[in-house]
Amino acid sequence: RIEFCTQDISTTDTSETPRLVVASDGNVGIGTTDPQRVLHVAGANNILRLDSSTGASRVEFTNTGSITADSVAVGSVANDMQFVTSGTERARITSDGNVGIGTSDPQAKLDVRKNNATGEGGSISIRNTGAGVGTSAALYLVPNNGGGDDLARAASIQSRQAISGNYADLGFFTSPGNTPAERMTIDTSGNVGIGTTSPTKL
Known about the structure:
This protein is mostly beta strands and about 200 residues long. The chain has strands at about 1-5, 15-20, 30, 40, 55-60, 70-75, 80-85, 90-95, 100, 110, 135-140, 155-160, 170-175, 180-185, 190-195.
């Protein structure tokens, strides 16, 4: 076991305070004399700071049993937070709070992109992990944060399983007050209903 200590020379107190400990099992403790991990930092308001003279700093997590050397990395570049897997940037949070997936230059609060010239590009999946008739998933659009039940003033698009099997219909809702109302329905046959949830025609 190795301890690195400091002493306050401004007083007559000759006691030493351990600042860094290398335990017998190889664990390193900063602010603790009983490190529980390879690196264990303890104390109030702990902040780990990485400064890079090239403008980019990151922490890499590697798995020696993996084919790729850099399995996962989280870092800072140009005041943005960068998320990397297999050596490729996958997501970024910019300094103004925009989140990009598949892009390092998101133009909205959430910007999802994929370069695919022959098929589907960027996509988002909102999924109900339950099963059975009556299940649904929804995207809510709330115009403001007015307090109370925000979803009561939201417009929404909902996907629902109304019948058994691999079926889904779409419902479009707006809020006339405190209770959202369905305004348009597209059923599993492609029939469109306005003012009815059981359309029989296109």
